[in-house]
Amino acid sequence: MRFVADADRGISFFLSIAGQPFVEVLSGDIVPIPGTADVDVTGVALDPEGTGLLGTQLPVDLYPASLNVTDASGATMPLAPGLALNAPGSENFANKYITYIGTNLYITHFDAAVDIGKTFNVTYTSGPASVPIVLHAQIITENRATTPVFSGATFQEA
Predict the structure, then answer these.
(1) What is the pLDDT of residues 19-54, one digit of tens each?
(2) What domains can you pick out in the chain, each with its CATH number?
Protein backbone atom coordinates (compact mmCIF):
# COMPACT_ATOMS: atom_id res chain seq x y z
CA MET A 1 0.00 0.00 0.00
CA ARG A 2 1.16 3.54 -0.67
CA PHE A 3 1.21 5.87 2.34
CA VAL A 4 -0.09 9.33 1.38
CA ALA A 5 0.06 12.32 3.72
CA ASP A 6 0.90 16.02 3.79
CA ALA A 7 4.38 16.64 2.40
CA ASP A 8 5.60 19.13 4.99
CA ARG A 9 9.17 19.02 6.29
CA GLY A 10 7.82 20.01 9.70
CA ILE A 11 5.80 16.78 10.04
CA SER A 12 7.31 13.32 10.50
CA PHE A 13 5.23 10.13 10.31
CA PHE A 14 5.71 6.85 12.14
CA LEU A 15 3.66 3.69 11.54
CA SER A 16 3.16 0.56 13.61
CA ILE A 17 1.51 -2.16 11.53
CA ALA A 18 0.02 -5.26 13.18
CA GLY A 19 1.81 -4.55 16.45
CA GLN A 20 5.26 -4.22 14.90
CA PRO A 21 7.67 -1.51 16.10
CA PHE A 22 7.13 2.02 14.79
CA VAL A 23 8.96 2.86 11.57
CA GLU A 24 9.33 6.30 10.02
CA VAL A 25 7.61 6.66 6.64
CA LEU A 26 7.42 9.41 4.06
CA SER A 27 4.46 10.36 1.93
CA GLY A 28 4.61 8.21 -1.21
CA ASP A 29 6.40 5.28 0.46
CA ILE A 30 5.21 1.78 -0.42
CA VAL A 31 4.43 0.10 2.91
CA PRO A 32 4.33 -3.71 3.05
CA ILE A 33 1.29 -5.05 4.91
CA PRO A 34 2.08 -8.18 6.96
CA GLY A 35 0.12 -11.27 5.98
CA THR A 36 -0.60 -10.19 2.40
CA ALA A 37 0.56 -12.08 -0.66
CA ASP A 38 0.72 -11.01 -4.29
CA VAL A 39 0.00 -13.99 -6.53
CA ASP A 40 0.63 -14.35 -10.27
CA VAL A 41 -0.54 -17.59 -11.90
CA THR A 42 0.28 -17.96 -15.61
CA GLY A 43 -0.96 -20.42 -18.20
CA VAL A 44 -4.27 -21.22 -16.48
CA ALA A 45 -6.26 -23.57 -18.70
CA LEU A 46 -10.00 -24.12 -18.87
CA ASP A 47 -11.63 -27.26 -17.50
CA PRO A 48 -11.73 -29.79 -20.35
CA GLU A 49 -15.23 -30.88 -19.25
CA GLY A 50 -16.68 -27.78 -20.92
CA THR A 51 -17.93 -26.02 -17.80
CA GLY A 52 -16.03 -22.78 -18.36
CA LEU A 53 -14.19 -23.30 -15.06
CA LEU A 54 -10.64 -21.96 -15.01
CA GLY A 55 -8.07 -24.34 -13.53
CA THR A 56 -7.13 -22.28 -10.48
CA GLN A 57 -8.81 -21.53 -7.18
CA LEU A 58 -9.06 -18.12 -5.55
CA PRO A 59 -8.27 -17.85 -1.85
CA VAL A 60 -11.04 -17.06 0.62
CA ASP A 61 -9.04 -14.00 1.75
CA LEU A 62 -8.92 -12.48 -1.76
CA TYR A 63 -8.93 -8.68 -2.01
CA PRO A 64 -11.56 -8.50 -4.80
CA ALA A 65 -10.37 -5.17 -6.21
CA SER A 66 -6.94 -6.70 -6.87
CA LEU A 67 -8.18 -9.52 -9.14
CA ASN A 68 -7.02 -9.26 -12.75
CA VAL A 69 -7.38 -11.86 -15.48
CA THR A 70 -5.71 -11.53 -18.88
CA ASP A 71 -5.77 -13.80 -21.89
CA ALA A 72 -2.57 -15.19 -23.41
CA SER A 73 -2.14 -12.04 -25.53
CA GLY A 74 -2.21 -9.86 -22.39
CA ALA A 75 -5.66 -8.39 -23.02
CA THR A 76 -7.59 -7.81 -19.80
CA MET A 77 -10.76 -9.86 -19.48
CA PRO A 78 -13.69 -7.87 -18.06
CA LEU A 79 -14.79 -9.03 -14.59
CA ALA A 80 -18.37 -9.59 -13.48
CA PRO A 81 -18.17 -10.91 -9.89
CA GLY A 82 -21.07 -13.18 -8.99
CA LEU A 83 -22.57 -13.23 -12.50
CA ALA A 84 -24.37 -16.56 -12.95
CA LEU A 85 -23.04 -18.53 -15.90
CA ASN A 86 -26.48 -18.78 -17.46
CA ALA A 87 -27.98 -15.50 -16.25
CA PRO A 88 -31.12 -14.53 -18.17
CA GLY A 89 -30.17 -12.32 -21.10
CA SER A 90 -26.46 -13.12 -20.83
CA GLU A 91 -26.57 -14.74 -24.26
CA ASN A 92 -26.94 -11.18 -25.61
CA PHE A 93 -23.71 -9.93 -24.03
CA ALA A 94 -21.21 -8.67 -26.58
CA ASN A 95 -18.23 -9.88 -24.53
CA LYS A 96 -17.14 -12.89 -22.56
CA TYR A 97 -16.67 -12.13 -18.89
CA ILE A 98 -14.72 -13.66 -16.07
CA THR A 99 -16.93 -14.28 -13.10
CA TYR A 100 -16.09 -15.72 -9.74
CA ILE A 101 -18.46 -17.54 -7.50
CA GLY A 102 -16.95 -18.42 -4.14
CA THR A 103 -13.37 -19.44 -4.92
CA ASN A 104 -14.06 -20.60 -8.49
CA LEU A 105 -13.30 -18.58 -11.63
CA TYR A 106 -15.39 -19.07 -14.77
CA ILE A 107 -15.54 -17.67 -18.26
CA THR A 108 -19.08 -16.84 -19.40
CA HIS A 109 -20.43 -18.08 -22.74
CA PHE A 110 -17.95 -20.93 -22.80
CA ASP A 111 -17.73 -22.46 -26.29
CA ALA A 112 -15.55 -25.57 -26.38
CA ALA A 113 -14.83 -25.16 -30.10
CA VAL A 114 -13.46 -21.65 -29.54
CA ASP A 115 -12.27 -21.54 -25.93
CA ILE A 116 -10.89 -24.95 -24.93
CA GLY A 117 -7.27 -24.24 -25.97
CA LYS A 118 -7.08 -20.79 -24.41
CA THR A 119 -4.97 -20.00 -21.37
CA PHE A 120 -5.21 -17.12 -18.96
CA ASN A 121 -3.04 -15.30 -16.46
CA VAL A 122 -4.54 -14.56 -13.04
CA THR A 123 -3.12 -12.04 -10.57
CA TYR A 124 -4.45 -10.99 -7.19
CA THR A 125 -3.57 -10.03 -3.66
CA SER A 126 -4.82 -11.89 -0.63
CA GLY A 127 -4.52 -11.18 3.05
CA PRO A 128 -6.28 -10.48 6.29
CA ALA A 129 -9.65 -8.70 6.33
CA SER A 130 -8.26 -5.99 8.58
CA VAL A 131 -4.86 -4.95 9.87
CA PRO A 132 -4.39 -2.69 12.88
CA ILE A 133 -2.30 0.36 11.98
CA VAL A 134 -1.22 3.07 14.41
CA LEU A 135 0.04 6.41 13.06
CA HIS A 136 2.03 8.91 15.05
CA ALA A 137 2.58 12.33 13.52
CA GLN A 138 5.38 14.40 15.01
CA ILE A 139 5.06 18.13 14.37
CA ILE A 140 8.24 20.15 14.64
CA THR A 141 8.51 23.90 14.31
CA GLU A 142 11.12 26.50 15.09
CA ASN A 143 8.76 29.37 14.41
CA ARG A 144 5.72 29.47 16.70
CA ALA A 145 3.92 31.73 14.21
CA THR A 146 3.93 29.07 11.47
CA THR A 147 3.18 25.71 13.06
CA PRO A 148 2.65 22.91 10.47
CA VAL A 149 -0.89 21.56 10.27
CA PHE A 150 -1.57 17.85 9.95
CA SER A 151 -4.73 17.24 7.91
CA GLY A 152 -4.70 13.45 7.66
CA ALA A 153 -3.16 10.46 5.95
CA THR A 154 -4.43 7.60 3.78
CA PHE A 155 -3.34 4.38 2.15
CA GLN A 156 -3.79 3.84 -1.57
CA GLU A 157 -3.46 0.62 -3.51
CA ALA A 158 -0.01 0.65 -5.08
Answers:
(1) 999 999 999 999 998 999 999 999 999 988 878 899
(2) 2-34+131-156 (no CATH), 37-126 (2.40.30)
Pairing mode, strands 68-71 and 53-57 = unpaired
Least Cα distance to 1 among 10, 18, 12, 11 occurs for 18
Distance CA 13, CA 139 (A): 9
Whether 156 has a pLDDT exceeding 80, the answer reads: yes
115-151: b (≥16 Cβ within 10 Å) or e: eeeeebbbebbbbeeeeebebeeeeeeeeeeeeeebe
8 Å CB contact between 82 and 90? no
Taking alpha carbons only, the member of 33, 36, 26, 34 closest to residue 4 is 26
Mean pLDDT of the chain: 89
pTM: 0.76
How large is the C-alpha radius of gyration of the chain? 22
Whether 10 contacts 140, CB under 8 Å: yes
